[in-house]
Amino acid sequence: MHSAPDQAARLLRATLFAARAHAGQTRKGAAAEPYVNHVIEVASLLAEHGAPENAVIAGLLHDTIEDTEATHADLVAAFGQAIADIVAEATDDKSLPKEVRKALQISHAPSTSDAAKQLKLADKIANLRAIADSPPANWNHARRTEYVGWAGRVAAGCKGVNPALDALFEESYRAALARLAEEARG
After folding, report:
1. What does the mean pLDDT of the chain come to?
2. What is the pLDDT of residue 28?
3. Active site residues
4. pTM of the model
5. CA distance linking residue 105 with residue 126, whole number of Å
6. pLDDT tens-place string over residues 134-163
7. Intra-chain end-to-end CA distance of the chain, in Å
8. Closest by Cα among 130, 113, 118, 128 to 172
9. Quick check: 148 and 176 in contact, CB under 8 A?
10. Burial, 29: exposed, middle or buried (Cβ in 10 Å; 0-12, 13-18, 19+)?
11. Nearest Cα to Cα of residue 155 among 122, 179, 113, 180
12. How far is CA 185 from the centre of its chain?
């Protein structure tokens, strides 16, 4: 266990690493938020719902291998093997077609570590909120509905580790479905 100053330093070092890695990237939503806001939100959800420190730090770093020039080796050097491995568990292989990556997320979720399961849940919660509040302009109703359903299938394999995150996912999932149903009614 790390002391409070050590924990704060590790969290801020990971935040800075993520901010630099994601510099210039924005979210797909209409608000075009800086991308780093997403990873900070994911880490915040993890911290607020009792996830272990390594999961929180991995939350800050979870899209670096997938979406930036950072490598697994970079994360090992900066944050250690355990955190780099949690990030790796949450990283899609971008060389595979999108539909294959999505199917693998569903099938691999139940066999990931407890930390990775919590990270995946927090990521899906953040994404469901974004789809409800600031959806990508080019995502029509059908695509957003498909994403929400897929997120639910991924989350099903991640539940049972952190009851607070499980409950928050369910709340976010129901809210996203309600928003989509409201839109469909016009």
Report:
1. 95
2. 87
3. 66-67
4. 0.95
5. 17
6. 888 889 999 999 999 999 999 999 999 999
7. 52
8. 128
9. yes
10. middle
11. 122
12. 30
Q: In the block, which residue shows the tokens 């070092």?
A: 13
Instruction: Give the 3-state DSSP-derived string for the chain, with helices as H, strands as E and coil as C.
Output: CCCHHHHHHHHHHHHHHHHHHCCCCECCECCCCECHHHHHHHHHHHHHCCCCHHHHHHHHHCCHHHHCCCCHHHHHHHHCHHHHHHHHHCCCCCCCCHHHHHHHHHHHHHHCCHHHHHHHHHHHHHHHHHHHHCCECCCCHHHHHHHHHHHHHHHHCCCCCCHHHHHHHHHHHHHHHHHHHHHHHC
Cα three-residue angle 113-175-44, rounded to 5 degrees: 45
Phi/psi region, residue 63 (left: phi>0; alpha: psi -120 to 50; beta: rest), is: alpha
For 67, the token pair is 């979406």
Residue 11 pairs with which residues in a beta bridge? none
CB crowding 115-140: b at 16 or more within 10 Å, else e: bbbbbbbbbbbbbbebbbeebbeeee
Contact 22, 34 (CB under 8 A): yes
